[in-house]
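tool=predict chain=A
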Amino acid sequence: FDEIIVNWQLYKVEVIGDAYFVSAGCPQPEKVEDRRADRLAMRAVEVALALQRALGRICDDDRLSMRVGLHTGSVVAGVVGKKGPRYHLFGAAVAYAEKMESYGLPGRVHISDATHELLMVGGHEYEFEERHIEIEGDAMMHKTWLVNKSKNKAALQMQKDILKQRRASGRAALMSPPPGVPTLGILPCPQAPTIPTNASARSPFALSKTPPLT
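tool=predict ok
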């Protein structure tokens, strides 16, 4: 899973419980055009789909599955703690990303309407399935989307360019985040959970990304 995240130049923020917390756009991609919010959203979706495929290859137990949640919104980044300082992300977008995971379906990639709109504006081609969910504590219905599969040829070319860039620079590991990061993304990824008896286990994901640089 880590290798997939590195290959798309995402950043692992931390592990929270049974979730893997990852950002898209932090640190910022070196190419200015890759800092666009729609391209960060596309990277996150491609990573989510790749991780779902990878789970099936590394584990043949059909009781093990994971849910993926993606959302787009602004976040605040900072280093917290004195004895054990760590880079962390805060904001309503983080909480809503978690909702996208928790209200998602096992084995599926679940995205918010804001993320879907970014992908549409950017012209990124995916096969979507519309949903409407009711979130506890909120009377309104929320329109969300399931991503069934990618039809995005630009994503494949982008990954080739990233891998070529990594080989040229000799960097095989994630870079440390810069002091100030105006464009961020959050993508939690998985840890294998304990499989309960007669129940489907899951590993939660969540994603959040900010608007493009101005």
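Residues 172-214 have pLDDT under 50 and may be disordered. The radius of gyration is 16 Å.
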